[in-house]
Model the fold of this input.
Amino acid sequence: MFFHYSHYSAGKLSLGKKNTLSLKIAEIQKKFKAAAGSCPENLPALFYLLSIIHLVYSTTMEQLNTDGTHIEPHQAFSKILSGLTGLENPIQPYFSQPDSVIYNNNCLEILSNLPAASIDMIFADPPYLLSNNGFTCKNGKMATVNKGKWDRSAGLENNLEFHNTWISACRRVLKPEGSLWISGTYHSIYQCGYLIQKNGFHILNDIAWFKPNAAPNLSCRFFTASHETLLWARRNYSAKHTFNYSDMKNGTFPEDKLKKSRTQMRSVWSIPTPGPAEKQYGKHPTQKPLALLNRIVKASTKPGDIILDPFSGTGTSGAAVKNAGSRFYIGIELERQYCEIGRKRLEAAGKPPSA
Done:
């Protein structure tokens, strides 16, 4: 009754075999449903197996042309983009290059129109929803924490619903072996951590990004916030996610004073916040350092992968994808001013510095 995925590898399936696979899955479904009827206590496990079979099948079909030949990475990327422009109400990119694109849209609109199981890695830095008329320190001076309407809390339950909606949408578009990164502070990260598990993800690590140059605490009524948390999760518990262990162990990370040469990469990363050079085209109030995204992309993707950022801001993730090379990038940002900064950064990424 069972079969192995490798028997139907994407590179070898002919149209005839595609049809055979479709019929085989239908046959297995019938047998599972019959077994479930006779053994109700096995129902959850049986339907879980059904979902895995559906996912393998849909992923295999997405990786094939109509003639049964394998789709190359650049073809898969182009297919995704043409799918958006080919809608009844076409979604046009704000900016595009052969290997990267930025959409000035709500991420849910884009995610809902992407093919299932089409993305290899997602990095998400969602709104922290902390713009509550409080104050913080910027450049040694008191400043408001308000960042814009997009960062205002709508209350705990509405915030949970917001995070659950985009997280479930991300899981739909991830490939079975894909992984998700989420960055956040205590205002949001615990909600996201609960919800990614509720949506079926398996957490691999929680990374503490330590900021050696964090802003001081002006109120002097609690500990100075000097870190953010990164959650890294794979789509399924048993998925064979990408982790470039040797690159992390043996690579050079001069910005990180905690990383010792040729030792395993640990889960506390010391990386300064973005400096002036990273803000030359403009800045975002929660902009992440390029060194942080360089490490994430290098650790968890491989050449040919498609990386998506649903809250791309000023395009730091896109610049990191460009730095890694031989990868494809989809950035989605609601605010047009940040799309424009992202465009400039993508255009500049990979170019030698001017004399």
In short: The mean pLDDT is 84. Residues 5-62 form one domain. The first helix runs from residue 15 to 38. The chain has two domains: 5-62, 75-348.
